[in-house]
Structure formats: structure tokens, C-alpha cells
């Protein structure tokens, strides 16, 4: 049985674990010991490491044939120091992984003015968060070429699920852009992202980029209107951008400064993925009870 190492055993990894433990011998790099017994109970071997402490990463060298990397970069800077330390540790092993699947973000494309975006579009990250992700991608692709490791990269947009919906924003009555200034957003259900990662473990091509997005074509306001209508909350007020900028934090505003529509043909044609939740509207109908 092939050995699989998971870096970042959070929500998406946990959704994939029931399938993964049936097909691989699974190791999970974790920072805290609070989940060790829980992971062992489902057949996962936990490894105590800290991506911010490079010395602890040495135990990962040569341990796995495959790697699923879900962990984000550190919270500041323009380079991914965590990825740099991890790749150095993996390079120190006598045996390198054959394939490393990385979950990145569609934010690396930057603002595309609402255009359709395929994987051939060059990245142009505009926020520090996206620049760290672009740096991680570049390091990984260089590592893959130099060490002959297949590195498929999944660029994921906004992830949602029944317990990952921005209802609090609606409850707070925070404003959105008026329709003529609104931006296109992209989405993927957490279960579908887990399934795409699983498919990339066996079928992802070396150095290949995949837009891990669903089929929805939605502006941000349309998405929040769907949420409001399904949950029985008031729709968010629509205001001109100048007024919205006065009422929201820079972090929230950063998501309103980039508009794009992702194509997803590659995940279907090359990875053979059939989305369980192809559109947000139909998914929300099952996730939220209808309110009269």
C-alpha cells in the first residue's frame, strides 16, 4: 500500500480521510497533540511537526510516496517560508515523493475584470496573501522539475459548505456593491474540493494547474442574495463602491477588488471529476431549510 503524507489536516483533509484511509497508509502532520487519538482511531498515523519550526520537519523526509498539501502559508510576508522549509526537509530524504498535490488559491490570478480565466492565464497576484501563494506555487514547480516530482496544483476559489457559510455578514447588515459595480466570484463546495484533491493524487499531471471551481456564474451580490433568501435573513444593502469602502475593513474590501470567472474543464476532462455540487444555487437548497 502506498504511503500518503497530509500536510495541513484541516476541514478539507478531514472530508477526504474516510476515502484516503481505504486506499493509502496515511500519515498526517499536526502541530497539536489534541487530535492524535482521534486520527489514530480512523487509521491515520499522526506526526508532531510545526511548519514554523524547520527542525521538526526532518521526520517527514522519505516517509511517503505521495503528499497532499492543504496548509496555508504563514500570515505575513510575500514569500512562503513554510513551503521553503518543507521542501528543504523533503529533499533531505533518501526517497522523494513521486507526487505532491498542492491546494492553492485562485487569488493568484488577481483582478481579471470579470473575464473568463483558464489555467493558461499568467498569475498576477495583487494581495500579500495571494503573493505568498504564488511564491509557494513557483517553489513547488521548481522543486518538481529539479527533483522529478509530479506537482499538480489546484487553484481553489471561495470554499463553502453547510458549516462554512458567511451568514454572520448578512446578520451584521454589511453592504455589498451595487449591481453595476459588482464583481464575479467563484465557488467550490468543500466536499467537491476534497474529491478533486483525491483525483489529483492519481491523475494530476506534473506541473499542471487546475482551476478547482464549480459551474456557477455568480456575482457577489447574487451569491449573498441566495444566502439571504434561503436563510430568511434580510438582503444586504447595495451601495456605491465609494460608500462601501468607508464601511468595510481592508481585508473585506480586498475580496471586492477582484473579478473573474474560472473555467473548470481540466478537472472534468483530465481528472475525471464529476461535481456533487455543480452550482451554488442548487447546493444551498439542500444546505439551508427554505424559509417562507
Overview of this protein structure:
With 292 residues, the chain is of the alpha/beta class. The chain folds into 2 domains: 3-159 and 187-211, 3-Layer(aba) Sandwich (Rossmann fold), CATH 3.40.50.720; 164-186 and 218-260 and 279-287. The chain has helices at 11-23, 36-41, 81-91, 128-147, 167-172, 190-203, 220-231, 241-247, 250-254, 265-269, 280-287, and strands at 3-7, 25-30, 44-48, 66-69, 99-105, 116-117, 153-156, 158-160, 176-177, 184-185, 187-189, 209-211, 218-219, 238-239, 261-262. The chain has a 7-stranded parallel beta sheet with strand order 3-2-1-4-5-7-12, sandwiched between helices. Helix 3 links the parallel strand 4 and strand 5 (99-105). Helix 1 crosses helix 6 (190-203), helix 3 packs parallel to helix 4 and helix 7 packs parallel to helix 11 (280-287). The radius of gyration is 20 Å and the shape is globular. It starts with a strand and ends in a 5-residue tail after the last helix. The model has no long low-confidence stretch (mean pLDDT 95).
Amino acid at each position: 500500500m502506498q504511503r500518503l503524507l497530509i500536510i495541513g489536516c484541516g476541514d478539507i483533509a478531514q472530508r477526504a480521510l474516510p476515502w484516503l484511509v481505504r486506499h493509502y497508509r496515511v500519515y498526517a502532520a499536526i502541530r497539536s497533540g489534541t487530535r492524535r487519538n482521534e486520527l489514530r482511531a480512523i487509521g491515520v498515523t499522526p506526526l508532531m511537526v510545526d511548519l514554523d519550526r524547520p527542525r521538526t520537519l526532518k521526520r517527514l523526509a522519505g516517509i511517503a510516496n505521495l503528499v497532499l498539501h492543504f496548509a496555508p502559508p504563514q500570515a505575513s510576508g510575500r514569500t512562503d517560508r513554510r513551503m521553503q522549509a518543507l521542501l528543504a526537509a523533503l529533499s533531505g530524504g533518501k526517497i522523494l515523493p513521486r507526487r505532491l498535490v498542492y491546494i492553492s488559491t485562485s487569488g493568484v490570478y488577481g483582478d481579471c475584470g470579470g473575464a473568463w480565466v483558464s489555467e493558461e492565464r499568467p498569475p498576477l497576484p495583487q494581495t500579500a496573501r495571494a503573493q505568498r501563494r504564488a511564491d509557494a506555487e513557483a517553489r513547488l514547480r521548481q522543486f518538481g522539475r529539479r527533483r522529478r516530482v509530479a506537482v499538480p496544483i489546484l487553484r481553489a476559489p471561495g470554499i463553502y459548505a453547510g458549516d462554512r457559510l458567511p451568514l454572520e455578514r448578512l446578520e451584521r447588515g454589511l453592504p455589498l456593491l451595487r449591481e453595476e459595480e459588482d464583481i464575479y466570484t467563484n465557488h467550490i463546495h468543500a466536499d467537491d474540493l476534497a474529491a478533486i484533491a483525491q483525483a489529483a493524487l492519481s491523475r494530476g499531471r506534473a506541473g499542471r494547474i487546475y482551476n478547482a471551481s464549480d459551474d456557477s456564474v455568480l456575482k457577489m451580490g447574487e451569491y449573498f442574495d441566495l444566502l439571504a433568501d434561503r436563510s430568511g435573513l434580510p438582503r444586504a444593502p447595495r451601495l456605491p463602491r465609494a460608500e462601501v469602502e468607508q464601511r468595510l475593513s481592508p481585508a473585506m474590501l480586498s475580496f471586492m477588488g477582484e473579478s473573474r470567472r474560472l473555467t473548470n474543464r481540466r478537472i472534468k476532462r483530465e481528472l475525471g471529476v464529476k461535481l456533487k455540487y455543480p452550482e451554488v444555487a442548487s447546493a444551498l437548497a439542500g444546505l439551508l431549510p427554505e424559509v417562507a
